[in-house]
């Protein structure tokens, strides 16, 4: 089958690799956003999917959008049986959705209709879900509203971070795609509508989401720290500087007895020697990064900044 792949970040490169290696698939084009200036030198940097596609000898296309007639004509000329979309970051207008003879399949890292929208992985962790998964769906004009082709569930252990879980889910999604692709194109698989009554929609994350609110529960803050890794992270302010709370844990509530939310207290755990009082207990701090400095264990941070104990954040 002739296939066009659309994707951008490094965590979907394994999906492209799987398609390239599949015996019954010919990847006739790879679509990814234009190169963007990065780093201090602001030199153009290619998306990871482009870099891998070049290594594989595939044709790469980088339109700013898919709305122009010229871009759509170029897509149509590829005569693809199916498009596969994985974290592409661009909307597909109706003419593009209608271009391949078997539609546009999308990998979404949640068990739709739960967690539609831009931050499904972070939201699953933040809300304390015990299970998530990946969905292979047929794209329509809505936001993650199209019919479901296949799904695979994945249990959550309460230790995952968003970056690691995202990689895992797209790796699982790549396997699910290869298991389903021939059946879909050959008509042996049928898509089923989503149950809209069960749908939830996630929000776009903002930097302000990472600001630690000490008036919420310690467990909720611990989940946010994992949900917002690597961005925006969980952070607070101390003596006019931002401190990133890179590794945290829920500490026994009695450690904060008598303290007010936001107060820094000493703990007896060697790996977690300091914590912050929350609404219901203490959030232990294991690894910190002061603005402009390297990340360091909390014990090392305290040796340099003993006045941190007892301060109010």
Task: Please tag this protein with its features.
Methionyl-tRNA Fmet Formyltransferase, Chain A, domain 2; 313 residues; 2 domains; alpha/beta; six-stranded antiparallel β-sheet
Write the layout of secondary structure elements.
Blueprint: E1 2-7, H1 13-21, E2 26-31, E3 36-38, E4 43-45, H2 48-55, E5 60-61, H3 69-77, E6 82-86, H4 94-97, E7 104-108, H5 120-126, E8 131-138, E9 148-155, H6 162-185, H7 218-227, E10 235-238, E11 241-251, E12 264-266, E13 274-277, E14 282-290, E15 295-297, H8 298-304
Parallel strand pairs: 1-2, 1-6, 2-5, 6-7
Antiparallel strand pairs: 3-4, 7-8, 8-9, 10-11, 11-14, 12-13, 13-14, 14-15
Helix pairs in contact: 1-6, 5-7
How would you describe this structure to a colleague?
The protein has 313 residues and is of the alpha/beta class. The protein has 2 domains: 2-198, Rossmann fold (3-Layer(aba) Sandwich); 207-308, Roll (Methionyl-tRNA Fmet Formyltransferase, Chain A, domain 2). Helix content is 25%, strand content 26%. Strands 5-2-1-6-7-8-9 form a 7-stranded mixed sheet. A hairpin with a 4-residue loop joins strand 14 (282-290) and strand 15 (295-297). Helix 1 (13-21) packs parallel to helix 6 (162-185) and helix 5 (120-126) packs antiparallel against helix 7 (218-227). The radius of gyration is 23 Å and the shape is elongated. The protein starts with a strand and ends in a 9-residue tail after the last helix. The mean pLDDT is 96.
